[in-house]
Amino acid sequence: MISLTDSQKIGMGLTGFGVFFLLFGMILFFDKALLAIGNILFVAGLSFVIGLERTFRFFFQKHKMKATSFFLGGVLIVLIGWPIVGVVLEVYGFFLLFRGFFPAAVGFIRRIPFLGSLLNLPFISGFVDKVGESNTMV
């Protein structure tokens, strides 16, 4: 079992609450306050989980500057008060930032009994195969 430090446990909780508030804010027709709280909690939780220095190194790598600008720009636009535009920018930046993790995530999900068979359905497997390849997304 993986042992986590206390700050990593706090970070997992903050990240979980951040994702919850983001999803709940989208369900409630892009509620500005919930989306803003979710964004702040998600970024703070990520900083607690991997550390502040590694978070800065992850976001501000030279080849990830476009993705970082879209993601953090989306967060800023949500905080300003345009939630739909901000969420669209955030999602695009999120996919650009974390596209290197998608092949590992797809491989892991395919080994889970119910979800693996769900991902192998004809109309879903083509999309999942494209997302699972690391070099196809630009």
List segments where confidence is low: pLDDT < 50 over at least 5 consecutive residues.
none
The number of helical runs is 8
Shape: globular
Q: Helicity level, as a percent range?
A: over 70%
Arithmetic mean pLDDT: 90
What is the rounded Rg? 16 Å
How widely separated are the two ends? 35 Å
Largest sheet entry:
none
TL;DR?
It is a multi-pass membrane protein. With 138 residues, this protein is mainly α.
Provide a descriptive summary of the structure in words.
The protein has 138 residues and is mostly helical. Helix content is 78%, strand content 0%. It has eight helices and no strands. The model has no long low-confidence stretch (mean pLDDT 90).
Chain-wise SSE layout:
Elements: H1 6-27, H2 32-50, H3 52-59, H4 65-80, H5 83-97, H6 102-110, H7 113-119, H8 122-132
Helix pairs in contact: 1-2, 2-3, 4-5, 6-8
Keywords:
mainly alpha; transmembrane; golgi apparatus; Vesicle transport protein GOT1B-like isoform X1; transmembrane helix; membrane
